[in-house]
Amino acid sequence: MEGLGGTLEIRQPHPGTPVIDPAGTLCHNGRLDVPLSLEFGLGNCGTRPAATKEIDMRNIGYGCAVTSFSLLLPLLAGCGGEHTAAPENAKPVIALIMKSLANEFFLTMENGAHAHHEAHADAYELVAEGIKDELDVNRQVQLVEQMMARQVNAIVIAPADSKALVPVCKRAIDAGIIVVNIDNKFDTEVLADRNVHIPFVGPDNRKGARAVGDYLAKQLKRGDPVAIVGGVPSAFNAIERRRGFEEAMKAAGMDIVISQSGDWEMAKANRVVAGMVTDRPDLKAILCANDSMALGAVSALRAAGKLDAVRVVGFDNISAVKELLQQGEVLATADQHADQLAVFGIEFALQMLREEGAPEDRETPVDLIAPGAN
Prior knowledge:
4-stranded parallel beta sheet
C-alpha cells in the first residue's frame, strides 16, 4: 500500500493462545488456521503530512498478544471513502485523462497542458495520464478510479468511449470531484439515463468535418465515388465527423460507395484503404476522420500506385500531416487546436471550482486547413 510502512512485533505468552504471524494469519499452537486481513482503506492520499500511530492489537477480539503495530501512515482525515475538501490555501489538483498518447494529437494535447501548468503553477497542480491505444476503455476506467482514490479536485477527460466512461465519471462526481468532458462528447442519452450532467468543452466536430468535405467537393465532379474511413464507431466525435462528411458529399452529389472504421489508428486505416482501392479501383477521394488515418490512407495509396488519382482529407491538423498538405498528398484537414483543447478544459474546471452551479457546454474553435482556405 502506497504511503504505508511499519513493523510488527509478536510474542506468545503461553501455549494455546492464538497469535497473528507476520504473514497476517491466525495461528493456534503454531498451526496456520484462519486467514486474517487487516485493511485500512487509505488509498493514495497524495502528499498529506505523515503521522505515527501505535495500535495495541490485544483488544481486537482474538485474544492475541501483539505488543505493538507501529505504522507510518497519512493522517486519517480525508483518507476515507468520502471526498474531503482541500485546505483553503492548498492548490487544487486537476487530473487530465486522455486517449492514446501514440496519437500525435493527444501528445500535443498533453504538451499544451503542461505548458499551461508551467505558466500557472501557482494556481493548480496537474496530473496527466493517457492510454496505450484508442480502444483501451478499461484502462481509462482504471485511471478515473485512481484519480478518485487520490482525491483530485477535478478530472478533465477525453473519453475513449462516449458511453462506457459515463458510469465511472458519475461515481467521481458523486464523490465530490468535478468532471469536465473534452474532445469526445459523452452520449446524451446515457447521461440522461444516469441523471448526470457533465459539461462538454470542445469543438463542433460535425461542422468541422462538413467544412473539410465541402472543400473536397469543389475538387471533384458530381457523381464521383468516394469512401469514408471513420473512427471508433461508438465515439460521439467519430459519429459527428462521419455525419459532416456525409452531408457535404450528398449536398455535392457525390456517391459514397464505402464507409468503414479505422478506429483512429494509422495501421488499421492503411489496411482498410488497401482493401478499398482493391474493391473499388474507381475511387476518387477518401475522407478520413482523423489525420493519423489519413497518413495510413496516403501510405496505402502510394503502395497501390494511386496517390495521384485519389484525394485524401483528414481531421486534426497534426504536425505529421502538414508536409503532406504542402505536397498535395493530403488535400485538407480541420484544426481543433490540440495544444489548447486540454487547456480549455482545465480553465473550465478551475472556473467550476471557483463558482457554484451547473455550467453549460462551451464550444471551442475548429478551422479548415487547406490551400486557399480563408
